[in-house]
Amino acid sequence: MDGLYAIVSSATKQTLYQFMKDEDISLLNYHFSHYFHFCIQINNIQVIPHHFSSHKIEGLTVVDELGISFSYERDNPKVKQNFTLCHELGHFILKHDGSYFAESVDNQEDILEREANIFSAMVLMPDIVLLSKIYYSCHTFHQVQNSLEVSNQALFYRLLDFLREYYSDNEGEVTQAIESYIEGKNASIFRLFHNIKDKIIEEFHQFQPSLINQVKQRVRKVGFVTSQEYPSLLNQDNWKAIKDNNGNLKTWLVYNKGKAIAYVWDKEKFSDEEARKKAELQLLLM
Ligand SMILES: [Zn+2]
To answer: What residue ranges do the domains of the chain occupy?
Structure first.
């Protein structure tokens, strides 16, 4: 196997895993659309269903003076459309040079097309999600396929590419384990996952949410956090980003005798007065 898969999958995880950590995405409820919609929203990308008269065209990326747009064949099955949309996103996120990409059956061997395909498969079926579903939750092949809205074939090849990165000298065993898994026998694929699970988990946990997102996640859960938990909240330069991100979050500072507590609260959960009292209590106990 060439190194392309390893390079593109690592680049994809950089952006995808960071997103999953920042947004605190549940591994078992993962669906590519969270990431996809986030990307098209912040980059102002238009997504347009289309009917291409040529049956060979599955999708299109166009970059022109009007902006960026992705088109997909509206008559294709949903699983195919999902793959095409993530493929188009791949051209964009991987910063492929060009203002026009057309997906046709004829060009799938081009290097940029292969890169976009690897990106797409990864976004639809991330390593950590496959591990959670297949190994930890014992989902069947069809359950995984249905919940992630991918085709049979896409899941088959994704598992093959994924597992043979770890078992490069034993491709026969990998193929057999996947075929047995499709038939409902999961002992072999379990064994394969068992030996690599720590690496997959460690890779995922290398990513941590940014300060802003850690604070957001915590406030979403408990309504109130202070600089006791997140010392960098004392730096007021961080406040603006916290407030910009969510209209419900407020920040303030209380101090006494050279000690200070900065705090963030959700105004739907605590009034200004309640939040201030909580902060003053912490200051008293410092
Ligand atoms: Zn393409």
So the answer is: 4-205, 211-285
